[in-house]
């Protein structure tokens, strides 16, 4: 297979005080693939996301997206190039409606510049098209009935879905999802996986963080494993997830517990949280 | 009954219109963009002084004077905004308080007294030929004399001032409405909710915040001009109590609504006027004998109304209660 990387990072370093939260020698994400980023809590996955997308500064390293060097570029410019991320702690716009959350995600809306804002003729058409696309996406994410509700009224799992749908409104080339399944109930998580697969089939590239190794195995084309800031190993899911070093990396952070137990406990906690929020 | 009629007449006052306009500007900052501007009085001072000095001291035409006031407000917004808008929200709060106080000390100081009149402020005296509002008075299309509207009697000057100022309020309110229904306005509201989310969607958050600060600031400067047109320019008028009153107006009417600031200003001034009337009545009747300074009482009634409102309608008169319910989530 010839290599066509959409994201290439070299020697990316980010430290907090004495801790090297990220120290990645080399990372590539191939175009049109689903890549899972796994690793124990504190491995530096979120920090890596933050640095690569311009939300945090790096202490060193270079990285390019779609052939453009984006090292040190402001976050909004990186997003505009087509590299769009979601957040581990969801960031929905609470006092806007679900539909408005989607509309603000659209790109190329001419009415977003002050000059054109006062001339509806210049943005009404694009707005109408965006509404159609937003409704379509919301239906896909089982949020269609919520379009008119304030986003703050959604449950934790629904917020995750909305944030992902909103990122898709932005028509990203590479979508980076930080724990998209966390807090989403198992039935929805299943359909989320289908959405992720569909994204790849549309030609987009997906990089996502996930703890549930079963889920990872069932959708991803490649798996990258991080531990203590570094990429420990990467490759096809079958080989990587059977690699003793990976199991070590996971168990390393929880040397007195079994991996299966950790996953089971986390899933239980998230499901409980979800139920509480939905009834609350 | 007289008190009621006099109080309602306050609706037509240019001061009420000026407060409404100033609150519209503050609403763009605080209500729609989530910017903590605690120094709005500074923008009003800049407008008032910029305009009055240009006309009364520098003898510039009114149109040029308006442009000077607007340009100074833009400059002030940039000066405050550029260093703070990329930082956390509280930095803007601190800097706006400080900057508006600096403005007030500057115009109050004797060093610039040649321009600002120092502590004396700027006179607006037709007889002395240094009236900065003369051009507006000259443009009055109404014949001198009195005009009766229902139970109220206005002088031609009052009527002209009321129409002029309220038309400006209406035009600016319409402009803000048009902006806020546009995609640009939606981005602003998104920034208010979570600026990182908007950044992740490719919006240049700092640019939008700067635009909001400038537009709201220019509206504030225009309100400052309105505020001093019927009277004189006095440095003490632009202290932080003015900013506080404007927040009261905004919260009364309902932040993040188009007409909230207008309704808030009207209610604020009608209430103040009514409490003045009641206090005078009380003084004449000797019921307030114990109070050394009954005029301080005027804000008490407004304070009580605000407290009642916060208890029963925390979203303001025109706000959406549902939105507030989410705040503690
Ligand atoms: N803003 C910060 N300040 C200090 N330390 C941080 C900060 N963000 C992350 N860290 C540290 O960096 C390491 C990696 O964290 P993170 O990237 O959140 O890991 P992951 O997402 O893989 O769970 C952790 O040790 C964490 O405590
Ligand atoms: Mg994380």
Q: In terms of topology, how is this protein built?
A:
The complex is a heterodimer of chains A (280) and B (329).
Chain A: E1 5-16, E2 19-30, E3 34-38, H1 45-52, E4 60-65, E5 68-69, H2 75-81, E6 83-85, H3 98-103, H4 114-117, H5 124-140, H6 156-169, E7 174-178, H7 186-201, E8 205-209, H8 213-219, E9 222-227, E10 230-235, H9 237-242, H10 244-253, H11 259-279
Parallel strand pairs in A: 3-8, 3-9, 6-7, 7-8
Antiparallel strand pairs in A: 1-2, 1-4, 4-5, 9-10
Helix pairs in contact in A: 5-6
Chain B: H1 2-9, H2 14-32, H3 40-57, H4 62-84, H5 89-108, H6 113-116, H7 134-138, E1 146-149, E2 152-155, H8 156-180, H9 183-193, H10 195-200, H11 205-228, H12 240-253, H13 260-285, H14 298-312, H15 321-325
Antiparallel strand pairs in B: 1-2
Helix pairs in contact in B: 1-13, 2-8, 2-11, 2-12, 2-13, 3-4, 3-5, 3-11, 4-11, 9-11, 12-13, 13-14
The structure holds adenosine-5'-diphosphate (ADP) and magnesium ion (MG).
Describe the protein.
- Chain B: One of its GO terms (cellular component) is plasma membrane.
- Chain B: It comes from Actinophytocola xinjiangensis.
- Chain B: Pfam families: BPD_transp_2.
- Chain B: One of its GO terms (molecular function) is branched-chain amino acid transmembrane transporter activity.
- Chain B: The chain crosses the membrane at residues 12-30, 37-57, 63-82, 159-180, 213-234, 246-271, 291-312.
- The complex is a heterodimer of chains A (280) and B (329).
- With 280 residues, chain A is α/β, with parallel strands linked by helices.
- Chain A folds into two domains: 5-92 and 171-279, P-loop containing nucleotide triphosphate hydrolases (Rossmann fold, 3-Layer(aba) Sandwich), CATH 3.40.50.300; 95-153, no CATH class.
- Chain A contains eleven helices and ten strands.
- Chain A has helices at residues 45-52, 75-81, 98-103, 114-117, 124-140, 156-169, 186-201, 213-219, 237-242, 244-253, 259-279, and strands at 5-16, 19-30, 34-38, 60-65, 68-69, 83-85, 174-178, 205-209, 222-227, 230-235.
- A six-stranded mixed sheet of chain A has the order 6-7-8-3-9-10, with helices on both faces.
- In chain A, strand 7 (174-178), helix 7 and strand 8 form a beta-alpha-beta unit.
- The longest helix of chain A has 21 residues, at 259-279.
- Chain A is globular.
- The N and C termini of chain A lie far apart (51 Å).
- In chain A, 44% of the residues are buried.
- The model of chain A is unreliable at 254-258 and 273-280 (pLDDT under 50).
- Chain B has a domain at 14-238.
- With 329 residues, chain B is mostly helical.
- The longest helix of chain B is centred in the last third of the chain and has 26 residues, at 260-285.
- Chain B has 15 helices and two strands.
- Chain B is 68% helix and 2% strand.
- The radius of gyration of chain B is 20 Å and the shape is globular.
- In chain B, strands 1-2 form a two-stranded antiparallel sheet.
- Magnesium ion binds at residues 45-46, 88 of chain A.
